[in-house]
Amino acid sequence: MTKPHAYAYGKLGDRHVLRVGFGAMQLEHADPADAVKVLHRAVELGVDHIDTAQFYGTANDLIRTALHPYADSLRIVTKVGAVTHPTERLVTAQKPAQLRASVEANLRTLDTEHLAVVNLRRADLPPGIIATGDQVVDLDSQLAELIALRDEGKIGGIGLSHVSRTQLRQALPAGIVCVQNMYNVLTRGHEDVLAECAERGVAWVPYFPLGSAFDRLPSVTDHPVVIAHAARLGISPAQAGLAWLLGHSPATLLIPGTRNLAHLADNVAVARIELDQEATTAFDALAQDTLAGADANRPR
After folding, report:
1. CA distances (Å), origin 120, targets 78, 193, 232, 251, 290
2. Domain locations in the chain as residue ranges
3. Which residue, among 193, 157, 161, has the nearest Cα to 175 in the 3D structure?
4. Which of 136, 156, 212, 273 is found 20 to 30 A from 17 (Cα to Cα)?
């Protein structure tokens, strides 16, 4: 049996948020009216942390349509470091001037003067897009631009995405508030980064928390151990996989995405689900480092 989670809220920068937020990436492929309904319902259910990016297609436009003017309690977090491309879908945009342009684009499409957090998506290693040529930019130069934007009041916190522990440590003096790396029950190649975040009071926001967004990445919800324990506990395999992430580290904040209202309700309910010791021990034993084999052509 599950029980109410002891800590349903966590820190994102200087604010507490529900530990289950909402990732807007999937909304690009939703019917616009349905997407607006999902966003409205997310906020009604208590979601106060929405993750988006200008390169997530129409996501920002849908967020503006659904939620503008924004409640003071809502934390809208975006990501820079890439832009859409007419033939390649997504390309790197790592130069400081490009980061600034991306922040300005997010401000325009969201119709706001301030972004709660901006994550810098580095492009050093697979999976995903890789920086080459003049797109290979040193981290300190990028951070300097984001600090300037923060000083101007255009962004609140600075986050990182797709980084190593060494890069996190290098960036900490800039006041990093969160890290987004790929991580889930089956793929734990960044356990060292998670440990550093927990030690430093930095929010850990794993993307692809159920693993299925990469064609070659194991799906958490298809794993027989996850399925069996979810059935025993009376919850869905997705809820079981997400609940393990929350229980594994108090630094974790989740941003699962969906276009489905029922799935949305199930996801938000995870903020108050705690796995029992039997399931936790079984899931702890499932780790695989599968990062190297992941499909590198996805827009993260």
Report:
1. 9, 16, 40, 19, 23
2. 25-180, 204-288
3. 157
4. 212
pLDDT higher than 90, residue 55: yes
Asked whether 176 and 134 are in contact (CB, 8 A), the reply is: no
Smallest CA-to-CA distance from 245 within 278, 208, 201 is with: 208
DSSP code at position 137? -
Please state the φ and ψ torsions of residue 157, each to the nearest 5 degrees.
-95, 160
Per residue in 157-206, pLDDT tens? 999 999 999 999 999 999 999 999 999 999 999 999 999 999 999 999 99
Residue 216 pLDDT: 74
Tell me the CATH number of domain 25-180, given options 3.20.20.100, 3.40.190.10, 2.30.40.10, 3.40.640.10. 3.20.20.100
- Residue 227: strand, helix, or coil: helix
Residues with a known catalytic role? 56
**Rg (alpha carbons) of the chain, rounded to whole number:** 18
Q: Which residue, 134, 133, 138, is CA-closest to 120?
A: 138
User: For the chain, how long is the longest CA-to-CA vector?
Assistant: 54
CB distance 274 to 239 below 8 Å: no
Length of the chain measured in residues = 300
Which among 149, 73, 156 is positioned nearest to 116, based on CA atoms? Answer: 156
Residue 204 has φ and ψ, to the nearest 5°, of -105, 115
Angstrom CA distances, 275 to 3, 21, 40, 115, 295, stand at 8, 19, 29, 34, 31
Write a three-state SS string for 138-153: CHHHHHHHHHHHHHCC
